[in-house]
Design goal:
Layout (H helix, E strand, L loop, with lengths): L1 H26 L2 H10 L6 H24 L3 H30 L7 E3 L6 E3 H20 L4
Antiparallel strand pairs: 1-2
Helix pairs in contact: 1-3, 1-5, 2-3, 3-4, 4-5
């Protein structure tokens, strides 16, 4: 139906713009992104950190552009969903470590998650990622045109 097509178009455009914006923000500020990735403590080798900081933002931009152009929408949305789930798990893990170490209430924990927007409230970021993941899943499960 027309409503379903318009909703799908709007969903992929909003998600695409989000990924282009956040990817470019990271790509144009690689030092900040590199520092944020390092803070998670999962990747220690500088070569791997540098590779992640150099490639991941451009992959996000690429996915955003594909969504905006309507190319490989389901596959791209699946990739975006995977990134969002992985990023959310990392944010949750780091937040739980900070909560245990500092005793700060979970919903008051704030740090730079590496998304390109500076320090954010973890609870808000997890809710935001959940919404984007739901949009991505809806695109993955959408019928072909």
């Amino acid at each position: 139906s027309v409503d379903r097509r318009v909703t799908g178009w709007a969903a992929r455009c909003v998600l695409g713009v989000c990924f282009v914006y956040l990817g470019l923000n990271k790509a144009l500020n690689p030092g900040d992104f590199l520092k944020a990735v390092h803070e998670y403590g999962i990747v220690e080798q500088s070569l791997h950190l540098t590779w992640i900081a150099a490639v991941l933002p451009w992959f996000e931009v690429f996915c955003g552009v594909l969504l905006l152009m309507g190319i490989w929408v389901r596959g791209t949305a699946f990739s975006v969903l995977g990134m969002l789930l992985f990023f959310s798990a990392l944010v949750l893990h780091r937040a739980l470590r900070l909560h245990e170490a500092s005793g700060i209430p979970f919903w008051e924990i704030r740090f730079d998650c590496g998304c390109g927007n500076g320090p954010v409230l973890v609870g808000r970021k997890l809710v935001e990622n959940t919404v984007w993941a739901a949009v991505s899943l809806a695109l993955v499960l959408s019928r072909k045109r």
